[in-house]
Design a protein that fits this description.
The protein is an alpha/beta fold and 355 residues long. It is globular, with a radius of gyration of 20 Å. It starts with 5 loop residues before the first strand and ends with a helix. The structure holds 5-S-methyl-1-O-phosphono-5-thio-D-ribulose. The site of 5-S-methyl-1-O-phosphono-5-thio-D-ribulose (MRU) has 17 residues, from helix 2 and strand 9. 5-S-methyl-1-O-phosphono-5-thio-D-ribulose (MRU) binds next to helix 2 and strand 9. Pathway: Amino-acid biosynthesis; L-methionine biosynthesis via salvage pathway; L-methionine from S-methyl-5-thio-alpha-D-ribose 1-phosphate: step 1/6. It is an enzyme of class 5 (isomerase).
């Protein structure tokens, strides 16, 4: 059975508590929007697509259990819930905000249709959230297959490819299959994956805690490295491509992703290794022209100074802990989406045209 970040059936949502991984795999019920926002804020669930999916499904389960009696109450409840969910984590990742905007305008349009009833509208919100879940898995499979094929085509038929990845972009960060890890998964399914190097991803260790867990679970040939070993690994271990995910890709192809992504892109350029961003169109924010205007989440200093609650840094030292960084488009070979693989400068046109 493949790993699941969420288990959903109508009226029931269980979220895998990622804070307990890799030691314990525990699914916890989320019965409504407040618990959904809490799971996002406390990082029980993380990863841009998974945040939007858990947020939207938490709304769906609350509406199923306690449907509003008036259309005006439904509209207000959905608007306020989405606001709470968007604010649960400072917004470098765009997916939750995009989902909120999409749902609010969809609902207003539906409510204006002649014959609209509060029951019918509530059902359509629940269905909308359920579709998000299904679409994410479908999109990720497409990203995986398109990305794998593109990498194989550009490595001139080399028997097995070696991938370096960062942070966690797998089943745990999405509704399933993963984005950058989806590419790895597809390469493995095609029998063309030689090895994966995953970075530890300091300071929050999504790589060593979560990606390593997924790779072991999937029996993928893989090695964990610290972030500071990336250069020597690229030079000495025949890395064919670096593939990472994204929290927000803007119109010119600049990409925000987990802090440390930018340095991997610089290193890849130095070593002549292609650098790919794998992201669904739900992570693309074509309304922002460049990465300079992306808000970067800053996280508590204890994530750097402490390990498992034990202080390791010298008391009194100042700390800066940005959770993400922006990789400029010039360092990105291509962006792998469910609608095609595009050079950064072709993204905007490519996404509007699609496959
Ligand atoms: O802070 P996190 O763990 O939510 O950050 C996750 C990432 O940066 C991922 O690379 C990104 O969300 C893409 S997940 C498919």
């Amino acid at each position: 059975m493949s790993l699941e970040s969420v288990r959903y059936s109508r009226g029931s949502l269980l979220v895998l508590n990622q804070l307990l991984l890799p030691h314990s795999s525990q699914y916890e019920p989320v019965t409504g929007v407040r618990e959904g926002a809490d799971a996002i804020r406390t990082m029980k669930v993380r990863g841009a697509p998974a945040i939007a999916i858990v947020g939207s499904l938490s709304l769906a389960v609350e509406l199923t259990a306690d449907p509003p009696q008036q259309t005006s109450d439904l509209l207000a409840f959905v608007r306020e819930s989405m606001e709470l969910l968007v604010g649960a984590r400072p917004a470098t990742a765009v997916n939750m905000k995009k989902a909120a905007d999409e749902l609010n305008s969809f609902l207003v349009q539906e409510a204006e249709k002649p014959g609209a009833t509060v029951q019918g509208l509530t059902d359509s919100v629940v269905l909308w959230a359920e579709t998000l879940l299904e679409k994410d898995v479908r999109d990720n499979r497409m990203i995986g297959d398109l990305g794998a094929q593109h990498i194989l085509d550009s490595t001139n038929g080399r028997a097995g490819v070696v991938i370096m990845t960062h942070c966690n972009t797998g089943s745990l960060a999405t509704a399933g299959y993963g984005t950058a890890l989806g590419v790895v998964r597809s390469l493995q399914a095609m029998g063309r994956l030689s090895h994966v190097f995953c970075t530890e991803t300091r300071p929050y260790n999504q790589g060593s805690r979560l990606t390593a867990y997924e790779l072991v679970y999937e029996k993928t040939p893989a090695t964990l490295i610290t972030d500071s070993m990336a250069a020597v690994t690229m030079r000495d271990r025949q890395v064919s491509a670096v593939v990472v995910g994204a929290d927000r890709v803007v119109a010119n192809g600049d990409t925000a992703n987990k802090v440390g992504t930018y340095q991997l892109a610089v290193l890849a350029k130095h070593h002549g290794i292609p650098f790919y961003v794998a992201a669904p169109s739900t992570s693309c924010d074509l309304g922002l022209p460049t990465g300079g205007s992306i808000v970067i989440e800053e996280r508590p200093s204890r994530e750097l100074t402490d390990i498992n609650g034990v202080r390791v840094a010298a008391p009194g030292i100042g700390v800066w802990n940005p959770a993400f960084d922006v990789t400029p488009n010039g360092l990105i070979t291509a962006i792998i989406t469910e609608r095609g693989v595009f050079k950064p400068e072709e993204l905007k046109v490519g996404l509007s045209r699609g496959l």
